[in-house]
Design goal:
Blueprint: E1 3-8, H1 19-38, E2 42-49, H2 54-63, H3 67-84, E3 91-94, H4 98-113, E4 117-127, E5 132-133, E6 139-142, E7 151-152, E8 169-173, E9 181-191, H5 197-205, H6 212-223, E10 231-232, E11 234-235, E12 244-245, E13 248-249, E14 257-258, H7 260-279, H8 284-287, E15 296-303, H9 307-321, E16 330-334, E17 337-339, E18 342-343, H10 354-360, H11 363-372, E19 380-382, H12 384-413, H13 426-447, H14 451-472, H15 474-480, H16 482-503, H17 508-517, H18 528-531, H19 553-562
Bound molecules: adenosine-5'-triphosphate and zinc ion.
The site of zinc ion has 9 residues, from loops.
Length: 568
Amino acid sequence: MARHLITSALPYINGIKHLGNLVGSQLPADLFARYLRARGHEVMFICATDEHGTPAELAAARTGEPVAEYCARMHGVQSELARGFGLSFDHYGRSSSDQNRALTQHFAGRLADNDLIREVSERQVYSIDDGRFLPDRYIEGTCPNCGYDRARGDQCENCTKQLDPTDLIDPRSAISGSTNLEVRETKHLYLRQSTLKGDIATWIDGKNDWPILTTSIAKKWLNDGDGLQDRGITRDLDWGVPVKRGDQDWPGMEGKVFYVWFDAPIEYIGATAEWADSNGGDWESWWRTDKGAGDVTYTQFMGKDNVPFHTLSFPATIIGSDEPWKLVDYIKSFNYLTYDGGQFSTSQGRGVFMDDALEILPADYWRWWLLSHAPESGDSEFTWDNFQQSVNKDLADVLGNFVSRITKFCRSKFGETVPEGGEYGPAETALIGAMTARIRAYEGHMQAMEVRKSAAELRAIWVLGNEYLQNAAPWATFKTEPEKAAMQVRLGLNLIRLYAVLSSPFIPFSAKAMANAMNADDTWPDDVQQALTTLPPGHAFTTPDNLFAKITDDQRAEWEERFNGTRS
Ligand SMILES: Nc1ncnc2c1ncn2[C@@H]1O[C@H](COP(=O)(O)OP(=O)(O)OP(=O)(O)O)[C@@H](O)[C@H]1O
Ligand SMILES: [Zn+2]
């Protein structure tokens, strides 16, 4: 048994996540966590909402709630949806927690002690009417690059150019619209990442087994242009972790908070501390190599835009602290899922969002499609047509049909108990051989986090059973050799149990329904031949309702229409 720490990129708090967010981080992390648990490993699976930063404040301002209340409410909404999708977090925390606040201040203090923080005096736009600075998205104006008149202080959405608030032409406050602005001097803390460049480069260079997507992004930021740059880690905002040096005040930094990207990854640790505080566990044994985390394997999951922060900034914080914190061992990154010829977009409400998805179909339908089409080697596209085909073929025709045929046939001829009699012949021996080879391949892909290959292998395992059933044809055998038919059905019922165990990381709800129907445990099939005798003659089962309903053409057309615009 090994110990595995798994984290998913933190979903941002300002709204409900879309299917792209789900398949780019939380869902594959859940797949891996469920697989490792099924193999008997000790797993700590952590996620949390990322709650600081200007988009949260602006979203709260739109609903009229105080930002802390807005975040608490949205955390509740996201937790509920996570449960609905079967995301099996050991803890789903909040980056605004007391634990994260203390840890963030602690890291900043350590970095300062190690001379890795410098103070920079910079010019920022100040709104006289609002009585505050206007960082990032708090300011809008005309883009100096393309002339778009609603560019934001951090980026122009039209031409994607990264901006500084002082670059904007005709700037105005995003809060009040006021143009009564001036540029004022303000002091900020910068993390001296450039000093750590050598250490980080050496660390990345040692990661030969990481996905190329991960290392290529890291190396680009490390080496392109002037190389790794120092980064501002504070902001003139109210909402966030107050700037402190450990538990001491930081002279000159009064009223400022840490930048959201500084405190968000620290919340992986913070959320584990939250877990420990509510469950009585030992969080340090997962994170401190001097306190038991030496044997932990740590894997992170995220979409490609989050890679720089996880390969450079967060490691700079960890390495720079010069304390024995656990560094990530493997970063599984994803390309983007696109929606029907365009991008998923939270700000524009484009695509399918987690709440709507669960309203129209059960979670397993989405889990299966998303994981079997995960954007691993390149972007992948969601289309309703592809979704319908994949659900109908893989889930309904292959798996669902197998379960239904075996159980219904058995019930009609032998009753709802596993029948006895008959001996394996060559067909069964061949099946067990083929099944064993495929299951071992499946394990290899799952261990390597090859999500699509794992899905393809699982599907092939389902197909093997279907082909066996088609050839064995117990409904025909029964007429002349009832004992042989009994053996075939017994094997089929045991295959259902086997499928429940193997499929549970992908489709946990349906797997549970299958296991419940078979009154079976969830022991992993280390020995396939033996696993197929788990349900002995006389063992009672119940015939499950149809596991999967097919998506009709009418439904597909209706949903295509319903989700082809944007939602507010
Ligand atoms: N279309 C996508 N496909 C795959 N992963 C995505 C996609 N969009 C975002 N992600 C990933 O989803 C995770 C959660 O992201 P987050 O909640 O911060 O939203 P985001 O990146 O701001 O996306 P959006 O701008 O669409 O709201 C991150 O790991 C991010 O990289
Ligand atoms: Zn522009």
